[in-house]
Structure formats: structure tokens, C-alpha cells
Amino acid sequence: MKNLIFLSITIMALAACSTKKATNETKAIDSSTSIITLTDTQYKNAALVLGRISQQPMAMILRVNGKIDVPPQNIVSISVPLGGYLKTTKLLPGLHISKGEVIAVMEDQQYIQLQQDYLTAKAKISYLENEYQRQKALNGSKASSDKVYQLAESDYKTQKVLVNALAEKLQLVGIDILKINENTISRSINIYSPINGYVSKVNVNIGKYVSPTDVLFELINPTDIHLALKVYEKDVDKLFIGQKLIAYTNNQPEKKHACEVLLIGKDLSAERNTDVHCHFEDYDKLLIPGTYMNAEIKVTNANVYALPEDAIVRFENKQYTFAQVDDKRFQMFEIQTVKANEGMVEVKNGELLTNKNIVLKGAYTLLMGLKNKSDD
């Protein structure tokens, strides 16, 4: 008796599962049922537009990133050739400065010694020049020996070298040799800005001694700030000098900055990418060096098979298009798409659709009709 009851329950369970499975199968679209036939009325109401798949150059958007950079020639490191103590400065990072503006005052006793040596050497050269001219005249009349004349000439030329060397040292530290005399000797010198720009780094404080190798300040000339992008090896051949692009920051993605490719790197890093330098067409002063930016570059591939977006339908995570079988019969074909641009979609297996009339508009109407047919 127990065996009979168990057997009955098992049969009922299997029957229920079979019924449920049959129900589910009728709701799913059979992949082999991919043809739909329209009536005259349906065909008229669908307003289908037919056409052929075409081969055309497909533009795509290459998305890369990078950061704002400054070329070495636009970065100026300020140092003092002879060293000294920083007496005054008003510089702060971000401060705008003008070419020729005093940006710091240095002082040291060696500046006094250098001016003293120059003025002393300059005063002595007048005597040596006169002595040289006198000995030259005497030697010409054989009134003095060649040795005395040559010694006077040597002393004069040696002093000229000394004066010129001291003058160059003074100019190197910013002292105008035309303005110094015995009454204007100073223990301090001015440091002038060589460019128009702004301060990016301040490495010293007042009262600190700096050596000739120390960098006091770093200045940036913003006239040639550019965008350095990282582009991978597989995409480098899509770029060319003069190519246009747009860039934007993460904080303000809606604010687009027009740029132009200026230079493409010729070597690859360990990550298989290279630097592509771009020039801002209109530089925004709010963009500062080191800011990370995203860029979009429109590039063109070789001719590819492409269909309008309206010709492609999505169903069960796959993509399809419809082709005409005969007058009012259409068949659904699965396709593989790569990318879309300006309303066109690249079709990887597009060669399967050549010589077929494709439904360019109204594809979703056919998909709905096919689903309704499957549900019936």
C-alpha cells in the first residue's frame, strides 16, 4: 500500500514538472522561428524603410587621459650664482610676477669684496695703460729696452683681463657696472624676474643662507602650457600632428577645452604607451600644471560594414537585424556590433548581410510581431 502511494505521488510530481516546462517553453521565442510574414495592412502600417548594408569609414571616439604639463623651456629655476643670505622677498606660490620685477634681495660680504676688487682694478688700469703707451713710444725710439716694453704691455693686458672678468661677475649677480663707483658700494643685490608668469615654488625663507646650487624659487611661464596625454601603442597610429580634440577635468566635465596635437612621442614606456603633447587653443588660466584631464579624440578607421542604429534591435542580450526574404516576409539575423558613432553602428559580421535588403527603419515593429507570434 505504501509503495502504491509513493508511486502515485511521484507520477503526479513528474506530471506537474512536465506541465510547467511545457508552459515555459511556449512563452520563450524559438530561435529557429526567425521569419515573420506581414499582411498587406501590417506592411502598410509598419512603414518599413529598406536598404543595403554599406561599407564606410567609421569614425570613433578615442578616450585617453593625462595631465597639464609645462615644457622645460617654460620653467625657470632662480638661484644666486655666488650664494648669499636672503634679505627680503614677497613671493608666495601662485603669485603673478612681471619680467624685470624685483623678486628678492640678497646680501653677503662677498658682494662688497667683488665691487671693491672691480673698482680697484679699474682704477689701476688707467696707470698701466699710460705706462704701456709711454714704453711703446720709448721703445720705438730705442730709448728703452724691449724687455721693459714687453713687461709694461703684459701688465696692461693682464689688468684688462682682470677688469673684464670682474665686470662679468658683477653682471652675473645683477650689479650694473655702469652705476657703481666708490660711493655706491652695496652689500646687497637684487634678484629680478626673467619672465612674465607666476610662482610655483618657494624653497627658502628670509635669513637663510643659500649656495650657488640651491634653487630659491621656481617660476612658470604659462604662455605655452600644454596637455600631455598617455596613448597606448595600439592607438598611436590613429593620431597625427594638428589633430583636433577636446579635454575636460573630472571636476568640470561639462566645460570643454579645445586642443590640438602638437607632438607625438617616438618611444614607448614599460606600460606600452607614449606621451602625446597637445596645445590649448584658448588657455584657461584656472588650469594649473599637474591637473589631471580626460580627452576625447575623434579618429577614423578603415572602411567597415555599418548599419543605422534604427536597423538594430536588442533581444535577450543579443543584437539582431531583419532582412527581406521576399515581398512581405522578413528574417531576423543575429549580428555582432563593435561601436557606434553619429547614428551608425559597425557590424563585425556584416559580410553575411551583403546583397540583402535590410530593414533600416521599423525593425522593432517586426521584433514585436515576432514575439507576439511566438507567444500565441
From TrEMBL:
Belongs to the membrane fusion protein (MFP) (TC 8.A.1) family. NCBIfam families: RND_mfp (TIGR01730). Coiled coil: none annotated. It comes from the Bacteria. Residues 1-22 form the signal peptide. It comes from Parasediminibacterium paludis. This is Efflux RND transporter periplasmic adaptor subunit. The keyword Transport applies. The keyword Transport applies. PROSITE patterns: PROKAR_LIPOPROTEIN (PS51257). Keywords: Signal, Transport. InterPro entries: MFP_Cation_Efflux, RND_pump_MFP. Gene3D superfamilies: 2.40.30.170, 2.40.420.20, 2.40.50.100, Helix hairpin bin (1.10.287.470).
